[in-house]
Design goal:
Strand order of the largest sheet: 10-9-8-7-11-12-15
Mean pLDDT: 92
Radius of gyration: 18 Å
CATH superfamily of the largest domain: Nucleotide-binding domain of ferredoxin-NADP reductase (FNR) module
Distance between the termini: 32 Å
Number of strands: 15
Order of helices and strands: HEEHEEEHEEHEHEEEHEEEHEH
CATH architecture of the largest domain: 3-Layer(aba) Sandwich
Helix content: 10-25%
Bound molecules: flavin-adenine dinucleotide
Number of domains: 2
Largest sheet: 7 strands, mixed
CATH topology of the largest domain: Rossmann fold
Shape: globular
Number of helices: 8
Strand content: 25-35%
């Protein structure tokens, strides 16, 4: 069971105190992204560390600060969890300089809104991700693949700026070999070896045949959302079946500091995953 923030407070565990964790393994995914395998030092807490696809943790680098990161690993893996981190600033830059065995702090998992994988059962699922936007949807993809027969078609469209920026390559190579995944890869700037599509993700959506009760998910750079959502709407996918991960500058992660407003909602506790139906009238949402 996942405890919500109020339950944690009444259970006496502070939502502000990070759990000590160890970096088990680091894998370089591109020039700017690394994948970290992480385990909480308290074994019982690690075994109980359960999250849902689309949730995130607050990562603490002691003496420096903290920042939110999505969990791309499978919720079914209780031995450790993963974070895919782009080196962009203080906290992310510091963990990029760390090595296996180093200690970090973890708060969470946080986020109320998550991809409704249970409701998606028996339906087509279309996932469109751009760049680092693949990280938040990876746990959804893994959840679906672990129970593949419960879902109808699984379409994954992934776009990157250039082939060297493609993340989760090993997973993508596995997906290519499966006949139960329809995979569309695209880059803005191809190199001479590139044999897939060229251009933005949006270009690949009109070619998808899907039913009106399909579920659609989008995650990527802010510029992408309006265009992808508009393509989904052309396919008559219902707004309550379209899900977006909306990341905002976040501080506390637990709905106290009010830094991550999306209209009258807070991305940390009401999201970061929202349905289009929930946010379509919020001016600054997408
Ligand atoms: C729910 C959620 C999930 C996320 N998941 C991931 C993930 O899986 N992987 C990942 O790499 N990133 C993820 N991010 C983004 C990540 O949290 C940010 O990149 C994070 O702020 C980096 O922290 P930092 O200390 O390294 O960077 P900072 O030192 O805070 O700087 C990062 C960049 O933001 C700018 N910046 C700093 N403060 C502000 C401000 N107040 N307003 C606007 N810009 C500012 C800086 O100039 C710099 O360009 C996620 C964010 C959210 C909210």
């Amino acid at each position: 069971m996942i405890m919500d923030i109020k339950e944690k407070e009444t259970a006496g565990s502070s939502i502000y105190v990070p759990e000590i964790a160890t970096i088990l393994k680091i894998e370089e995914m591109s020039q700017t992204e690394k994948l970290f395998d992480i385990r909480l030092d308290d074994q019982k807490k690690q075994e109980k560390f359960c999250f849902l696809p689309g949730q995130f943790v607050e990562l603490t680098i002691f003496g420096l600060g903290e920042a939110p990161f999505s969990i791309p690993s499978s919720p079914g893996n209780r031995d450790f969890f993963q974070l895919c981190i782009r080196d962009t600033g203080n906290v992310s830059g510091a963990i990029h300089r760390m090595k296996a065995g180093d200690k970090i702090g973890i708060r969470g998992p946080f986020g109320k809104g998550y991809f409704p994988y249970e409701r998606m059962k028996g339906k087509d699922v279309i996932i469109v991700a751009g760049g680092l936007g693949l990280a938040p949807v990876m746990s959804l993809i893994k959840t679906i693949l672990e129970d593949r027969d419960s879902y109808k078609r699984l379409v994954i469209i992934y776009g990157a700026t250039d082939p060297s920026n493609i993340l989760f390559r090993k997973d993508i190579e596995d997906w290519k070999k499966r006949d139960d995944i329809e995979l569309g890869l695209t880059v803005d700037n191809p190199d001479s070896a590139w044999q897939e599509n060229v251009g933005v993700c949006t270009n690949l959506i009109p070619g998808i045949n899907c039913t009106e009760d399909a579920y659609a998910v989008v995650c990527g750079p802010p510029v992408m959302y309006k265009f992808v959502v508009s393509e989904f709407e052309k396919k008559c996918i219902k707004p309550e079946n379209i899900f977006l991960s909306l990341e905002r500058r976040m501080e506390c992660g637990v709905g106290k500091c009010n830094h991550c407003h999306v209209g009258n909602k807070l991305s940390c506790v009401d999201g970061p995953v929202f349905s289009l139906w929930e946010i379509r009238n919020l001016k600054e949402a997408i």
